[in-house]
Write a structure and sequence with these properties.
CATH class: Alpha Beta
Radius of gyration: 20 Å
CATH topology: TIM Barrel
Strand order of the largest sheet: 1-2-3-5-8-9-10-12
Distance between the termini: 31 Å
Shape: globular
Strand content: 15-25%
Largest sheet: 8 strands, parallel, barrel
Helix content: 40-55%
Number of helices: 12
CATH architecture: Alpha-Beta Barrel
């Protein structure tokens, strides 16, 4: 019997069956975490079998948090972690293009990649949190200009890395110009590019043009599926095979062996269990495993578990012991 499902749905299911599912740890240090705290979490994640340690790139706490002891710079942190870990990938979800000149960003990421032995990935976005820009004298253009600059930054960063040694890279754009750059230093290997967001037009276009991975955050499987299909359509328009790209979801996560543990961990981060269950991962290991499979069925091949209480290293260990083996 012929498959009566719509072609787009069949494509999502096919992508889900051929992609290996892996789990990454995603942290939000601007809410309050020292480098030592991040190092302990990264080492715990490596021991627990997570495939990567990612962090946000922000300079100001959000919501009710005081952010103590103050922000840590994302790429300084990741470079240092590259020297103190051995296997996990390291990256940002995502760096704001407003924070760094594209040439400096390319140098910083390439050096961090060298320091880690080729384990760095770059998530790059247009930026959105105006308050942190105001707090640290960082210019914050309007949304249209930010997307224009993001497009150029992606051209420049990838162009610098891809320029063969001994040749020169040039770029003449609306916002940036580069003249006769040697494109040094070179990363150990070309860092994968992550582009993320829920925008319906510009984000899918940029992902199709530049990304090795597309990420959508804090949503239901249905919303993730819609975002994935927009990227798939943008790839088709560009003539790119959409299955060359990884598709991922970032989800706030609370895992516990019983209801008491779940309630305690949700309370520690000030989150409602019902809301987390709708737009994140919340429950016992079996419940979380089942929810991850729902995302896998719509095309996700990678999950970023956002753990907000970085002092709870037992939480990291529990996911490593129970969830990761179950979905692999």
């Amino acid at each position: 019997m012929a498959d009566s499902r719509p072609e787009r749905h069949r494509h999502s299911l096919l992508r889900a069956t051929v992609r290996r599912m892996d789990v990454r740890l995603f942290t939000e240090p601007q809410q309050g975490a020292s480098y030592d705290t991040l190092l302990a979490a990264a080492l715990a994640a490596e021991d627990a079998g997570f495939s990567a340690f990612f962090r946000s790139d922000h300079y100001l706490a959000m919501g009710d948090g005081d952010g103590m002891p103050g922000p840590t710079d994302a790429w300084l942190t990741l470079a240092a972690l590259g020297r103190e870990t051995t296997t996990i990938s390291l990256g940002t979800l995502v760096s704001s293009m407003t924070f760094r000149h594209p040439g400096i960003l390319a140098i910083s990421v390439a050096q961090a990649d060298q320091m880690s032995g080729g384990r760095v990935e770059l998530g790059l976005g247009a930026g959105w949190f105006k308050a942190e820009h105001d707090a640290y004298a960082i210019p914050f253009p309007d949304l249209g200009e930010r997307f224009e600059r993001l497009d150029e930054q992606l051209q420049i960063v990838t162009g610098l890395w891809d320029t063969p040694s001994g040749e020169l890279f040039n770029h003449s754009g609306r916002h940036y110009s580069i003249v006769d750059s040697p494109g040094l230093p070179k990363p150990t290997r070309r860092p994968p590019i992550v582009v993320g967001g829920g925008g319906p037009r510009r984000t899918p276009r940029l992902a199709a043009a530049f990304a090795d991975e597309f990420n959508i955050g804090f949503c239901t499987p249905e919303r993730a599926s819609e975002a994935f299909e927009r990227v798939t359509a943008a790839c088709a328009k560009r003539g790119r095979d959409s299955d060359e790209m990884a598709y991922s979801v970032a989800l706030a996560t609370v895992c516990g062996e019983n209801e008491t543990d779940i309630a305690r961990r949700a309370a520690a981060i000030g989150r409602d269990i019902d809301e987390l269950s709708e737009n994140g991962l919340c429950g016992t290991p079996d419940q979380i495993t089942s929810r991850i499979h729902e995302f896998k069925e719509v095309g996700a091949g990678r999950i970023y578990t956002q753990l907000l209480d970085l002092d709870d290293l037992e939480h990291i260990a529990l996911i490593g012991e129970t969830v990761i083996p179950a979905i692999q």
